[in-house]
Write a structure and sequence with these properties.
358 residues; alpha/beta; Rossmann fold; 7-stranded parallel β-sheet; 12 strands; 12% strand
Length: 358
């Protein structure tokens, strides 16, 4: 190599990532969000890889958004070859700006899918059985009429999944014992794949009209931002529960609030918000028919370790000259290879990752 790989990261989901990379021929530099900005830029301007900080990570930092992989960071960091998000979501990365600059973009979809899917199922059970509602009532004073806490069952209901990726697919599997009808809106899934998952592909309009549970498990992109708004909530049944473990901007928070207070829908399970962490005076948090968590769906002991291991091994593959296993912008590959060769003196090969997968 004509240069030693340098990787900048804000944090690992588990120390296992650092343990794995310590024995690799890579310089590892931690981005300290509390340090002067000049220190952070000095590290990033010499970096070949960047494990991007999340929006939650940078929320408390002064001008924290500068550490997200947007056009300004891409333009400033001329040596940058690869940026990677910590989990499946990659809204912290401007994929188009990276592609134009010859930078590969990766995520870590897959390792955290079980945790998020289980969390989504937990929301379904909580809302249907009124577990949190009953808990609040029990703690606030004597229970008068238990029938006021009457819930419903999942058995035989219709589940609508928006986004049949790793999380959505696993959620479908988890719901199989409840004998639910599963319908899916995902323009990137074909009929053959839908048949393999034993689900029915429908339009978004059909999904919101028919579902008893609307589950949002898609990534935040230009296509999905604002996907669920006033018209979609108005089309839902008054008995429908809206649940999201995706990203806040996929739905309109004001429209959701209006649907919840008007009785347009029965309730909501929210792991994500437009502003994270949400302020305590967020109107949605004042509603009894809302169950909320602070973007913790994917935070389990097991998922944290699995994501860390997947993160570290992907970086090992990248710097050894392989194609990243979870490459999001494959069109960048030819230009990326040229830039990689110019920095490290050898050309990456897509066959390296195939050999590792085998």
């Amino acid at each position: 190599m004509s240069a030693r790989p340098r990787l900048v990261y804000e944090r690992w989901t588990d120390p296992a990532a650092g343990d794995i990379l310590e024995v690799s021929d890579v310089d590892i530099v931690k981005l300290d969000l509390t340090a002067p900005a000049e220190q952070g830029w000095a590290a990033l301007e010499s970096a070949h890889g960047y494990q991007v900080a999340t929006r939650t990570d940078v929320a408390s930092a002064d001008d924290g958004a500068q550490w997200l992989a947007g056009p300004a960071l891409v333009e400033r960091c001329q040596q940058l070859l690869v940026v990677c998000s910590a989990g499946a979501g990659y809204d912290v990365i401007d994929v188009e700006a990276c592609t134009r600059a010859g930078i590969a973009v990766c995520n870590n979809s897959g390792p955290g899918a079980e945790a998020v899917a289980e969390h989504a199922l937990g929301f379904m059970l909580d809302l249907a059985k009124k577990i949190t509602v009953a808990d609040r009532a029990l703690r606030s004073g004597p229970i008068g009429n238990r029938l006021a806490l009457q819930g419903s069952q999942l058995l035989g209901k219709t589940l609508g999944v928006i986004g049949l990726g790793a999380i959505g697919s696993r959620l479908v599997e988890l719901c199989a014992p409840f004998g639910m009808e599963v319908i899916v809106f995902d323009p990137y899934v074909d009929e053959a794949s839908a048949s393999d998952h034993e689900v029915q592909l429908v339009s978004l309009d059909q999904l919101v009209e028919r579902s008893d549970f609307v589950q949002v498990t898609c990534p935040l992109t230009k296509e999905t931002q604002g996907l669920i708004g006033k018209a979609q909530f108005a089309a839902m049944k008054p008995t429908t529960f809206f649940i999201t473990t995706a990203r806040g901007p996929v739905h309109d928070e004001k429209a959701l609030y209006d649907a919840l207070v008007s009785g347009g829908i029965a309730g909501a399970g929210l792991d994500v918000f437009h502003e994270e962490p949400p302020r305590q005076d967020n109107p949605l948090l004042q509603l009894d028919n809302v169950v909320a968590t602070p973007h913790t769906a994917g935070i389990t002991i097991e998922a944290a370790r699995d994501i860390a291991v997947a993160t570290a091994t992907q970086w090992q593959t990248i710097f050894s000259g392989g194609m990243p296993p979870r490459l999001l912008n494959p069109d960048v590959w030819p230009r990326y290879c040229e830039r990689f060769h110019g920095i490290f003196g050898f050309r990456p090969s897509a066959t390296v990752v195939l050999e590792r997968r085998g």
